[in-house]
Automatic annotation (TrEMBL):
Residues 67-385 form the Aminotransferase class V domain. Keywords: Aminotransferase, Pyridoxal phosphate, Transferase. This is Aminotransferase class V-fold PLP-dependent enzyme. It comes from the Bacteria. One of its GO terms (molecular function) is transaminase activity. Pfam families: Aminotran_5 (PF00266). It comes from Pseudomonas bubulae.
Length: 397
């Protein structure tokens, strides 16, 4: 049985995986963090489920999905997080669940403080600021240095707790969408608990590429996407509430669809994408065939390290994520040091080298270029990126 680390370098294995995806001609996609591709078999299964529900309409939904299938699917997803199924509710995406958790958290009083950082996702930041305005709360925002260290990240939160004793609730992004930094969740959550602070974890980019055990991490509230690294159709997410903490989150908009206590009342009420949910059986089968989060993560990290190790040697290139293996994943951002706004360099990468990346702004480090490898990324793609970085940087040195 090969080690996961060895399998990450097995090009024969990963070429077979890459061949499961149908790729359109065009730019080399190094922006795989937005959402993931479905494999050919998953896409076909999804289409079959669309046709099935379209032909049969509400009959199988009322008779099976609403009564048993939905719960069976939820049970199968619980293992991805190491939690009891009773703590999970189906959502449309991570933001959907996270916003519900934020607006329905009932442990706040006028004058309390909410904590965010410069690396939160927009929808989470907006929700925290919106709740603060509505309830007379104060927002405390911290900024992280780049490249951060494990110790500096934990220390920044400890200092925030000590300086602001009225913090009651904080957002914590597991994998930051701007730079790709992976937060030391367990240590930060432990520090928050010492100061009586509850944490809502944004796991949108984590699920599927990082092995998760929410009870071990100490996480009571979280939201996740299934359409990034798990490989599911779009519009699928999960919300988690520790069953022992269910009373701290009110039913969303007074939702009474299910008899209390039931975590599903904390999710937005509405008809879900039933064909997409029915496709999850096939999705999870392929997820495990690819090695699960551990195997996928090892492959993505291997590809990430191939380009990052070369980029660090290039004068005029700054990589914004530490090489501590606890702090990086498939996503890593860089910047050309000779320019402030990185969008023109994103444009050059596409126009001159056929490389599709994305600029990200909003963090304390300023404008950067997000590079996200994927399961169809080849070694030739990595070499093309390194050549482009080297040539574009040399043109300005």
């Amino acid at each position: 049985m090969p080690r996961i680390e060895d399998n990450a370098r097995d090009e024969h294995f990963w070429q077979a995986i890459a061949e499961r995806y149908d790729l359109a001609p065009g730019p080399i996609n190094l922006e795989n963090g937005y959402f993931g591709r479905m494999t050919r078999d998953v896409a076909q299964d999804y289409q079959r489920n669309i046709d099935f529900i379209n032909r049969n309409n509400s009959v199988p939904v009322r008779q099976h999905f609403d009564t048993t299938q939905g719960l069976e699917i939820r049970d199968s997803l619980a293992g991805l997080l190491g939690v009891a199924p009773a703590g999970l509710a189906l959502t449309f995406c991570a933001s959907d669940g996270l916003q519900s958790l934020i607006r329905n958290y009932n442990g706040l009083q006028t004058g309390d403080q909410l904590l965010i950082s410069d690396l939160e996702y927009h929808s989470v930041e907006y929700a925290m600021r919106g709740v603060a305005r509505q309830r007379g709360l104060e927002i405390i925002e911290i900024s992280h240095t780049h490249p951060a260290t494990f110790e500096s990240l934990v220390a920044s939160y400890r200092q925030a707790f000590e300086r602001n004793p009225r913090i009651k609730l904080m957002a914590l992004t597991h994998v930051t969408h701007r730079t790709g930094l992976v937060m030391p969740v367990e240590a930060i959550v432990a520090a928050a608990k010492e100061h009586g602070v509850d944490v809502i974890l944004d796991g949108a980019h984590a699920l599927g590429q990082i092995e998760l055990d929410l009870p071990a991490l100490g996480v009571a509230f979280a939201g996740f996407n299934l359409h990034k690294w798990i490989g599911a159709p779009l519009t699928l997410g999960l919300m988690y509430i520790d069953p022992q903490r269910l009373g701290d989150i009110d039913p969303d908009m007074g939702n009474e669809r299910y008899p209390e206590p039931d975590v599903r009342n904390r999710a937005v009420y509405g008809t879900v994408n039933i064909p997409a949910w029915l496709t999850l059986t096939k999705v999870l089968q392929e997820h495990h065939e690819m090695g699960g989060a551990r195997g996928k993560g090892a492959r993505l990290n291997y590809l990430r390290n191939l380009w990052v190790s070369e980029a660090r040697k290039i004068e005029g290139i700054e990589v914004l994520v530490n090489d501590d293996p606890r702090l990086y994943c498939a996503i890593t951002s860089l910047r050309f040091t000779h320019v402030q706004d990185q969008q023109p360099m994103v444009d050059r990468l596409l126009k001159d080298y056929n490389l599709f990346t994305v600029a990200r702004n909003g963090s304390a480090c300023g404008s950067c270029i997000r590079v996200t490898v994927g399961f169809a990324t080849t070694l030739d793609d990595i070499n093309q990126l390194v050549r482009a970085l080297r040539e574009l940087s040399q043109a300005h040195t």
